[in-house]
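Bumping with the actual sequence this time:
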Amino acid sequence: MAMSKTSKVLLAVAGTLLVLFIVGVIGVILVAESFSKPSVPENSVLVLNISGDLPDYVPEDQFAKALGINPEQIYMNSVANVKPVMDGMVAALGAPYINGIITVTYGKDPQDPKWNNDPGMKLYRSIIAKYGGGANPNDPQVAYGVSKAWTFVQLLYRSGKTPTRAGLMNALTSMNYSQPLLLPGMVQKTSRTDRFILSQMQLQRFNGSTRLWVPFGRLIEARPR
C-alpha cells in the first residue's frame, strides 16, 4: 500500500530530527573534550619545576598486608646471599639501605669470628692452607665448595672398597650424618624416596655495619620428615 503524502512528510521530518540529534551529540562530545584537555602548542616542551626531595612511594599491597608480610622488608634466597652480591649491593646502594635483609642459611660463615675456634672451621682452614692454591678462606663460596667436596668424599668412602655406581647410589640414598661446616644440629639425610639432602634452615639478618649475617630464631625444619 502506497504511503500518503502526510506520512512521507512525517517520515522526512523524523529523519531530519534524528540526524540533527546525532550531530548535536557529537558536537557536545567534541566541545567537552576541548575543555578537558590542556592547550599545548604542537612540538612544545613542558617543564616541571619541583623543589625539595620527593619521598619514595610504594602502593600498599593489601594482599601482603592480609598475610602479615611487610612489603618494605627485603627477602633474599640462599643462593644470592653470597659475599660478592652483598658487597656489590653495599657499594651500589649503601649499607643502611640493605641493612636488615632476611635470608636463610645452613652453613657456618667463615667471615664470622664466632666460628674461629670451631673444630670444623679449623679443619676447613687447614685444608685451604694446604690445598687452596691461594683461595681466600674467608670467602663463604670457598667454604661452600669445600663443604660439598667433603660430602662427596664421604660418599665415596661409604661406597665400598671398590666403588661402583650401585654402591655410590646406595651411599647417596642412605645418608644420615652431619659434616664439619654445617650449622650445629643440622643433618644430611636421604632415603630411596627422599633425595633432598638438607631439609633444615636457619633464618638470618644482614648487618650493614659489620657486613655479617646474624642468625635469629631456632633451626627450622623446612620439610619435616
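The C-alpha cells above came from a reply further down the thread. The beta strands are 102-105, 176-177, 188-189, 200-207, 212-215, 220-221.
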